[in-house]
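Supplementary Data S3. Sequence and structure tokens for construct A.
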Amino acid sequence: MKKLLSKLCVSWVLLVVAILKVTSLQAAEIKVAVAANFYKPVLALVDHYQKETGHHVQVSAGSTGKLYAQIKNGAPFEVFLAADQQRPSLLVEEGLAEPSSQFTYALGTLVLWSNNPELVDGKGEILKEELTHIAICNPKTAPYGAAAVSAMKNLSVYNKLEPKFVEGQSVGQTYQQISSGAVDLGFVALSQVLVDKQLNGGSLWLVPNELYSPIKQDAVLLKQGSNNAAAKQFLAYLQTEQSKQLIKDFGYDVK
């Protein structure tokens, strides 16, 4: 009887080892390039995805324009989560992304934010005052920067404020400039200043949607990921109701 139990134990251990080996072989890595505004949400999405699938997702964040340039220059990304529709569409046109894979995963919201809880008023009237500096991300490479420029022009304050710009290369860098106190206020994404759906300190003005073009953030499967089933699965995961709810919780709208 003891010998039988011993054999069964050995067999069970070998079975578990075999299962672990198979799981290890099936686990894949996905290289994702993500716009800086969506960095926190994608980390939360990746955490859920990895737990459910066993795959590993490597995330690189930056401005949409710079990531686009890196992809054109051969960076080994497989999935691109941009902050606009333009760059994913260009990559499709240039043969660097799969045409049928492109979709809008989030609609962004622009805010004027300060780390000072008493600085920014609820109507954005502070933009008409004499400011020393105002932070903005590069409008040529970062869609949130382009949206900020559009909003200021529509408010007829752009010419007055342009000499005061402190420009970040991405909306992530702009957020750091404001949160550190290096700049008193500036334009960032709503998702960057929320924690558990609440403002994480400071003061903000939700910039009205009519002051800038909708920030439609598109995802696309890059040609380098066309043979990676896990990359395709990750894009499908972003379109599940579970993922859409999480994206909403971070301050975005979804289609």
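Construct B, processed identically:
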Amino acid sequence: MDDGDEPPGRPCPLCGSSMTHRHCKYVCPTHGVVYDCSDTFY
């Protein structure tokens, strides 16, 4: 069983919070989707 400890994700460029990776999107808990598949620069 997973105890919820996940490695930190990429930091949000806007606020520095750890983003989660969902499908091909990076989601900030504060700002929502920050990067998706069409963003090839990050």
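The chain has no helices and three strands. The chain has a mean pLDDT of 78.
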